[in-house]
Design a protein that fits this description.
Elements (H helix, E strand, L loop, with lengths): L1 E3 L7 E10 L1 H18 L2 E13 L1 H14 L3 E7 L3 H16 L3 E5 L4 H9 L1
Parallel strand pairs: 2-3, 3-4, 4-5
Antiparallel strand pairs: 1-2
Helix pairs in contact: 1-2
Length: 121
């Protein structure tokens, strides 16, 4: 399930991802993100990942395809989770993200408000 977080405003969107994500749900969110880009050009994204998440193969493909096509429209990306693996992946990826103009940072769930402050400024 993907749901929009209440703190979202303007060009800043936060989503909570949990449970099972299929291609149909992923594509509904892609439409929302496309509309944000159309309205604001560059967007900031906060992704709160809770619990075990099962991404269907089609959803992973759709997400990756959208991300590669739209990197130039992403200004900041905050990943909020308790996963050490995700923290490591963000740390490894952030220098490459910076090359294409994306600020990318991992926060633990206890730092959610810090993550919001970071994506909003």
């Amino acid at each position: 399930m993907i749901k929009k977080l209440l703190e979202s405003e303007g060009a800043i969107i936060g989503i909570e991802v949990s449970g099972t994500i299929d291609s149909e749900e992923e594509n509904l969110w892609i439409e929302i993100f496309d509309k944000l880009i159309e309205d604001h050009d560059r967007i900031n994204i906060l992704v709160l990942m809770n619990g075990k998440i099962n991404y269907g193969l089609g959803a992973v493909y759709d997400d990756l395809k959208w991300t590669l096509k739209n990197m130039q429209y992403i200004n900041k990306l905050a990943i909020v989770s308790e996963s050490n693996i995700l923290a490591w992946l963000v740390a490894a990826d952030s220098p490459f993200a910076k090359i294409v103009g994306i600020g990318e940072k991992h926060f633990e769930t206890s730092q959610l408000q810090d993550a919001w402050r970071w994506v909003k400024h």
